[in-house]
Amino acid sequence: MNTPLLYRLLDTDPAAGPAELLHRARAGRHLPHLVLSALAGDGVRMGEAARAELGRARERVARYARLAAGLTRSTGVRAIRGLPLAGCYPAGLFRPLDTLDLVAPDEAALWQAVIRLVTDHPVEHIDVSLLGERPHHTAVTLHWPAEDPLADPWYRVHVSTAALPGDGRSVPVRPFLVADEQVECLIALAESRLGGPGLPPGPLDLLDIAALAGRPFEAAETAEVVAAYRLAPEVACLLDHAAQHVALGPLAAVRAALAPELAAEHRRRGGAPTVRRVPARHGALLRRTVIRHSWGEARLLGHTPDTSLLLTPVADYLLAPAAGASPATRTAALDALHHWDSLC
Predict the structure, then answer these.
(1) 235 contacts: CB under 8 Å, gap ≥ 6
(2) Which of 65, 77, 195, 282 could form a disulfide with 167 if both were Cys (CB 3.0 to 4.6 A apart)?
(3) Which pTM does this prediction carry?
């Protein structure tokens, strides 16, 4: 985990110097901040603009960490994926963090966290999705602008009752993720590749593996946990790609221990009965509401054969087919909400 590794991963000639490395990094969304932190650690001279950019990025992650800690204490949600991964990086090397991912133990805790965020921050957009069917899981993503919304990405907090959403087909939703932190991070990295187009890992994925390679792993136990979460093929593929670029350390033994699990998982997926893919149902915002503090869960109301109304503690949504809803359907949905209001 050093600057020469960044030069290799970003296919940059070290002779071209740090300015070219940073230029290459800007092709990736948040890699510039990681490169800037590495260059700062090397003592490379940088001007006020670069120092300010790195400082804002560090403050973003520090704010996410404070948010996560406060929400854990008050609601029981906890951080997964990016924030714990950032904690695995060597001191001084900054892992960028676009989204704060949180998992809630149940729907009541999820809405408590959402209400807290809406109350404490200038949230402008709230996206809601339902995953799976009977029982479904809920995912909410909240967005609000950074202090300089032209220069920096908006804050984005994703809260879900499903730690691992699966692919809606052969790998189911796994609501709970319970393992040692570094094993959870490895599982979360693999889950992000589930059902994807099979592209090789990007530079940030490889750097994440390099960071995890500095942590202790018990090979047999880790392989057993990965297999239990149905991700043996994804972890094996990720480690195989990473081995071409970084030292795997204790993860090499994990990869070897996974070998007997691969055939079993492929058989499980191939031999599973054909299941209808259940896509996530995304809510189209109808209206923000005053906060319904007394609600512990959302209410799903039938509207038409193809649509439903989702009433939540912070806003009301129309759930419609993937093609979307016509203006007439939205108008009818709002009329139905007004009628519901009159009955309450």
Answers:
(1) 186, 187, 190, 226, 254, 255, 258
(2) 195
(3) 0.91
